[in-house]
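input
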Amino acid sequence: MKATITSAIVLSFLFFNTGTQPRMTAAAVPGELPQEAAKPSPRAGHCLVYDEQLRKVILLDGYQPPYQPELGEAWAWDGRKWQLLPGSGPIGRFYGAAVYDLHRKKIISYGGVSYGTRKGFTDDTWQWDGKSWQQLADTSVGTRFLHAMAYDAAHGKTVLYGGIRPDNSYITDTSEWDGVKWTQMTVPGPGARSHFAMAYNSRHKQVVLFGGVGTKSHNDTWTWDGKTWQQVSQEGPPGRVRHAMAFDSRAGVVLLYGGSVSRTEHAGDLWKWDGQRWTEIKMTGPTPGKRGLHAMAYDAARGKTVLYGGKDFTTGKILDDTWEWDGQQWAQVK
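output
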């Protein structure tokens, strides 16, 4: 690490260092958007989730300058084109988290920072069955953002960890969603952190967590087996924030791309975790470049990892590009 990322720097990340704060203005609901729109708008702090039933990658929410929808959008990627899905969802937001519940065949979304006329911090749980959204009653996890979630298929539960409260204090609890309610697990965890990433490794039946920042920046790797957290490595990628991870089930590895190593040093590297160690993947040809606040999901039907959007650290722009990793190289999909 060349620099330590402090809590104050984390707060500056809330507005992506673009020079201006997000425009918290109301806009049209998804049904009023032009249906000929070819792809999602530029955005950062969004979620990508692979829907096993639809066999498509679903994009949710994100900070979208200058367009800030009052209600969240859902887009589907089938490998050829993006499609704006009909219907209104949760309040538009960024810095939330979402997963696909394989057992119940529903996308679960929790928390984040909302915009529009109802801007603020959220403590709501939503589920989407591929056709419509439903808000669920349990808000016991509490208001938070910059947390992460992963679906633990071995135990049939969504795992949520960490994040920040509206008073900028860090959260260190682990909670599980069983389809009906949240249960807080009374076990020690990876400690105070935000801007980290998690992915579920189905080969080893573990949730994998890497990086983030709390009172200091982290380069540690932790796993959750349904009962306990275990720190399994402090070697591999340099400590970072604003990166993204996804599990490549064909190769049996967790992939990590990009992020910020410090306030001034940013990454465009690709790493894989095989359950025991991290190995950097040497890329050839075009790559997504140095970026953070992007999102990734593995498309199991096509055997490709999909990356969308984020912030380009070279130009400072919020992006609207789609990239796919086939296990050998990146390709930008036009």
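quick obs: The domain at 7-333 is CATH 2.120.10.80 (Neuraminidase).
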